[in-house]
Amino acid sequence: MTPMRFSVTCLCLLASLLAGCTTQDRRGPCDVCALHHTRMIAKSVPIRYGLPADFPPELSDLGRREFPNSHKWVMGGCMVDREQTAILWCCPECERAEQAWSKAREQAERQRLADPPPPPPLPAAVDLRPRLLALGLPPRPQGARGTCSIFTTCEAIEFALGSHAEHATRLSPEFLNWAAGQAAGRPSDGNFFHNALNGFERYGICRAESMPYSPRFDAAAAPSERAMSEAMRIRDSARAGGPILIHWIVPWQSAHFGVNDEQFAEIRRVLASGSPVAAGSGHSRLLVGYRDDPSQPGGGRFITEDSALNRFDEVTYEFVRGQVADVFWIEAVEASTTRTDR
C-alpha cells in the first residue's frame, strides 16, 4: 500500500472512531477496477441496514455490469450491527458512470411526468337516460315560464344527490327559483346557473311537493317556514354524506358563447363517467348522453333533457361547440372519497 492510500485509510478509521462507531474494511485484494482498468481509491461509505426504500430495482444488475465499483453506501443486511461505515475500493470511472445513469434516469422521470400518457379513448356513445329513469327523474315541464336554467340546475342537483341511492328525490324548481333571486338580490322568473347554485348553497332546496311549481310567476311568493327548514335539512344531510362539488367546465362570461376543444372533450368525459352536464345557452338543457356520428354537424349529437319540450331531445356537436355559454356538473362525493378539485 502506498503512503497516500495508507493515509486515506487511517483518516477513514479515525473519523469513524471519533463518531463513536466502528468501521468494517471490506476492500478486496485488488485495487484495480476490472471494468475500467483504473486504479481505485479507498473510501469510507455508510452501511445501510434493511432494504433501502429509495433503491431502484433495476440498479442491482445494472450496477454490477456498468459501474461495479461505485459505492455511495453498502448494504449491511437485515440485522443492525454496531458497524456504521465500511472501507471499500472505489473506481472514479465507475462513479462517473453511475452519476451519468442517475442523471439520465431523473431526466426520463421528469419527462414522463411532464408528458403523461394520453387518456384512454372515450366510448363512441353514452346514454344516461336509463339511469335517470331508474332514479325516478324523467323530464318535467317548465310551462310558459322562462325557467329553463332553474330546471336544468334542479335536475343536476337531483341526480347528484341521488347518485348513490336507488331512487332520487324530486326537488322544487319553484324553491330554487326563489333562492336564485335571493342570491341575485332581486326576484326573477328564471336566472343564471351561478345564481341558482349560489341560492342552493345558501338556502338549500326542498322537495317538489313542499313548494309546488306554479304555472305563473309570483314575485311575492316565498317558501313556508316548513319548506325553508326542509330545504336546509336536505342540503345539510347531503353534505354530511360527503362534499357537494360544483365543477365549472365553462364559467359564465357575459356575451360569450362556444366551447374550445378541451372543454368539449371534458363534457364528453364527464358524460362517459356517468354524470349529466348542465349546458347554458339561449335555452338551457341538461346533457345526458352523446353519440359520435360523422354524418351529423360537428361529428355527432348530444342527448338532452329539455324542460321546455318536456322530453328527451338532441342537439348537434356543432351547436354545443358554437352556441353553449356556461357549463357545469355536480358531484356528490362520498365521505370515504377524498378530492380537492372544485
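That was protein one. Protein two is written in the same sequence-then-structure order:
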Amino acid sequence: MPSTINIQWLQQWLQTDWFLVTAGIGTIVLGLLLVSRSRRQTQALTAKLQRLERELRAANSSAVGMGRQLIKMEKMLKHNVQPELTANHPTVNNTIDAPAVQPKPIKLETTLAHSPTSQDSSYNQARHYLSQGKSVEETVKACGLSYAEVSLLQALSKQSASIS
C-alpha cells in the first residue's frame, strides 16, 4: 500500500508541476510580448521626439535669423533715413526756415526695458545674464525664455553695444 500512496502523490505532484510550468511559460511569453510592444512604442516616441526637436531647432533658427534681419534693417534705416527724407521731400530741401528732419535714434535697451508685457522681469534678467557673459543655454534655463528670444536679446545687445 505504501507504493500506491507514493504513486498517487507523484501523479498529483506532476500534474501540479505541469500546471505551474505551463503558467510560468505563459507568463514569460506574455512578458516578452509586452517588452516587444514597449520597445516599438519607445522607438516610435523617440522618432517623434527627434522630429519635434528638428522642427523646434528650425523654428528657433528662423526666429534668430529674423532678429538678425531686423537688426540689419535697422542699421540700414539709421544710415539711410536722412538722405531719403530730404530726397523724397523737396520742401525740406528748399525751405530755409524748416528744421531738418532728424530721426531719433532708437535705444533698444530702453525699448526692451519698457515693453508692457508680463515678462519684463524675465527679459531684464536675461539681459543681465547675457551682460555677465552667460551662454544662451544658461540664460534660457535661468529665465524661462525660449532659445530664440534669448538669442535675439543677445544679438540686440551686441548690436546696441556696437552703436554706442
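DSSP finds six helices and no strands in the chain. Keep this in mind for the problem set.
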